Amino acid sequence: MELLGLFVIASMPVLKVLLIAALGLFLAFDRFSILGEIARVHSNKLVFFVFNPALVASNLAKTITVNSFLTLWFMPVNILITFVIGSALGWLLIKLARSPRHLKGLIIGSCSAGNLGSLPIIIVPAICDEKGSPFGAAGTCRTYGLAYASFSMALGSVLMWSYTYYIIRLSSTETQEKPQADSSGLLNDQDSNEETPLDLSVPLLLSSTECSFEAPGSQILVSSSNSMTKILSRRIAQCITKFAEKTNLDALFSPSTIAAIVGFMVGMIPPLRNLLIDRNAPLHVVQDSVYMIGEASVPTQTLIIGANLLRGLKGSSMKLRVVMGIMAVRYIILPLLGIVIVKGAIHFRLVPVDPLFLFVLLLQYALPPAMNIGTMTQLFGAGQSECSVIMLWTYASASLVLAFWSTVYLWLVAS
């Protein structure tokens, strides 16, 4: 296929997203106030609790079987790689840009967590509908493309509300801690000047002090293997408890994640599938109704994305070099590394040679930061205005960047 033709195919879905997002931004202006602050909150709740779960459950139930599930095992690994590499690059950006302490979690989160939900669900089916798409029949491509994108949304939600949530929470906790005054009423110079580094291993491994089981002043003497086993089990239980306290488990098991589990169960358990999915199924009207509700997710999310950019237009004290660094990580370094990683997976036969599946894997490296990062900064009160500026510039440039990388990815998977 000609490169120009691929660019047209890739540009059309991005242009649709840009137009709908621009409408959302227009509706958020104070003169109209159709998508004002309160309206956005209620719309977000509707998308989070109703539209997205319906979209995820209906598409996964329709397309995922036991055999197809076994071919998707590399997607969780691929998404985890994007988070790990993005975190490392974000930490490096913090050191090079000498960013303030209260922005550490925001920068690492913006570099590591991409918009794995709404944008793939918007872009992939739109490319399937374009004439000349390299993914075959539009109907089949759209069905499987939505399934892959829904699985991406569910996995991204789990990592977002565990890994990224904990990093931003840890960073906000560091900035809220103030040096203690000594007996003379003066701050200790060493404490006030010293900057505590953000330990990227904390979200994965809890420190020994957090999992301590010794009561104050007590000593545990291990006299036998039985007592050692009891102590070890108590330590594990304590670590799990501490991790649960520091992780937003309610958001971790979000409605989309639960919907993904339900969708997998319906798709892979033949009695449930025959009851709900097949055209002659007794309860196929339930599946059709859920799918109809899920279709409202894409336009609603796009309008909200545009409306959320309004705060970024008002500006903040965010340094330009930090914003440019985040854009370089998300739009240059990660997409290039993604090509190497996916090509390596193909070489070692870790993934099936399915152009649509490979395109979704590659697309996960070229997405702008997740919008939920803004929710987390609001939750902890750290870097809200700076987050709005990051979202404004990354999403404003996403139209050109996604069109470019989608063209490159289409060329790679079609050749």
UniProtKB/TrEMBL annotation:
<keyword id="KW-0256">Endoplasmic reticulum</keyword>
<feature type="transmembrane region" description="Helical">
    <location>
        <begin position="73"/>
        <end position="94"/>
    </location>
</feature>
<keyword id="KW-0927">Auxin signaling pathway</keyword>
<keyword id="KW-1133">Transmembrane helix</keyword>
<feature type="transmembrane region" description="Helical">
    <location>
        <begin position="106"/>
        <end position="127"/>
    </location>
</feature>
<feature type="transmembrane region" description="Helical">
    <location>
        <begin position="147"/>
        <end position="168"/>
    </location>
</feature>
<keyword id="KW-0813">Transport</keyword>
<feature type="transmembrane region" description="Helical">
    <location>
        <begin position="251"/>
        <end position="269"/>
    </location>
</feature>
<dbReference type="InterPro" id="IPR045033">
    <property type="entry name" value="PILS1/3/4/5/7"/>
</dbReference>
<feature type="transmembrane region" description="Helical">
    <location>
        <begin position="331"/>
        <end position="350"/>
    </location>
</feature>
<feature type="transmembrane region" description="Helical">
    <location>
        <begin position="6"/>
        <end position="29"/>
    </location>
</feature>
<dbReference type="GO" id="GO:0005789">
    <property type="term" value="C:endoplasmic reticulum membrane"/>
</dbReference>
<keyword id="KW-0472">Membrane</keyword>
<protein>
    <recommendedName>
        <fullName>PIN-like protein</fullName>
    </recommendedName>
</protein>
<dbReference type="InterPro" id="IPR004776">
    <property type="entry name" value="Mem_transp_PIN-like"/>
</dbReference>
<feature type="transmembrane region" description="Helical">
    <location>
        <begin position="356"/>
        <end position="380"/>
    </location>
</feature>
<comment type="similarity">
    <text>Belongs to the auxin efflux carrier (TC 2.A.69.2) family.</text>
</comment>
<dbReference type="Pfam" id="PF03547">
    <property type="entry name" value="Mem_trans"/>
</dbReference>
<dbReference type="GO" id="GO:0009734">
    <property type="term" value="P:auxin-activated signaling pathway"/>
</dbReference>
<feature type="transmembrane region" description="Helical">
    <location>
        <begin position="392"/>
        <end position="412"/>
    </location>
</feature>
<dbReference type="GO" id="GO:0080162">
    <property type="term" value="P:endoplasmic reticulum to cytosol auxin transport"/>
</dbReference>
<comment type="function">
    <text>Involved in cellular auxin homeostasis by regulating auxin metabolism. Regulates intracellular auxin accumulation at the endoplasmic reticulum and thus auxin availability for nuclear auxin signaling.</text>
</comment>
<keyword id="KW-0812">Transmembrane</keyword>
